[in-house]
Give the backbone structure.
Amino acid sequence: MLRHFAEYVMRGRRQAIIIALLFTFIPLMGWVSDAIVALVTLRKGPKEGAIVLIWVILPSIVVALLGYPELWIYDIIGGSVAVYGLALVLRRTGSWAFVLQISMLLGVAAVAVVHMFDPDIFEQSVKEITSVYNDYKTYFHLDVEPEVVDQTALLFAKFAVGTQVALMLIVDWFNIFIARWEQSALYNPQGLSSELQNLRLGLIPIVLLVLVLIAALSGVAVAVDAMPIVVLPFIMAGLSLVHDLVTVRKLSKRWLLVFYSLLILFFIYMAGLLVIAVVADHWLNFRRKLQTQ
């Protein structure tokens, strides 16, 4: 079904604009519009992608100007425009690793800008988290000690901006993944699988990870807030490594089920192991060693 959908979108500019614009008005389906922008950009280039992008963001611009300025960040810049830009990166480089690296740099820069222009962002985040709890505690019959609520709010507020940016990046990557999958299904079967299984981060993300980690351990607020963004690409690269190892060793898919079960149950510890594995893979190249055995 998705294949037929992609074929229709690829028939011409008018079809792409109509379908993309239509999905912008369907609640919770706006991401489809961004995926269409990415697909057109990947297949037909920056000009055609930009034309569809303009039509996609036009309704959000109108609504933002009518009194919803948060749409500039969440829907327009962090959503559609970011997807378009990252799709251009993938089109020109053919490298998911480069997409992750650019995303990491832009995400860290976004956190730094927020902290620069809003020095009180931590206090605001604490108030917002506490307010959300107070709004829902009656509805869900929550009964938590005020001290625990305060401590939890203080903890999560340290990562509030970085977590929001990381979530936006996940949605952006998902849209680009869907677009690349559709492009691969139509024009280059097995192309996406090969790209994802060979995803290896370079030295720049590793250096940035070390610098941000040192700064975070030193108590630098911006570095602490940026940790979710810096770690996220390593988790994605780690997932690629695990899938490729299972394929190369011809292991049962049950190993993936066990792995993802452990990842869900012990996320922090498993995420740490994935980061270590990706850093080690940069120098040891586990894939090549296994292929030569």
User: Anything to note?
Assistant: The radius of gyration is 21 Å. The chain has two domains: 1-93, 97-293. DSSP finds 15 helices and no strands in the chain.
